[in-house]
Request: fold
Amino acid sequence: MVNDPIADLLIQIKNASMVGKRIVELPFSKMKFAVAELLASEGYVAKAEKSGTFPRQEIKITLKYHGKASVITNVIRKSKPGLRVYVNATKIPTVVGGLGIAILSTPQGIMTGKEARKRNTGGELLCEIW
Reply:
């Protein structure tokens, strides 16, 4: 059993991209699907889609490559089940000088750090991706 499903999602995407796989399939949850859709909208993965019926739903993530190199260089999980990291709107970090994104879980839903700054809302800092 996985204790941290978001970390599992991120590490499976990172490992698959390092090996050169095209598709990653994971068990479905609303939180993981929201993070996967955010990665797709920001251009870090080609697409994220839900497949299957209720008891056996999956998330199918198609990875994105630039030539033979993966678009995702690195992923860092910031908030963990043992140590939650919360930031307010003024303390949201910029990732690699603005080349990456920070993903936050806010009261308005899962969003990037840039969007959270624009809406002037803070939340739990889930991860940084570049």
Observations:
- The chain has a mean pLDDT of 95.
- The domain at 5-70 is CATH 3.30.1370.30 (Ribosomal Protein S8; Chain: A, domain 1).
- Residues 79 and 85 are 5 Å apart (CA to CA).
- The two ends are 28 Å apart (CA to CA).
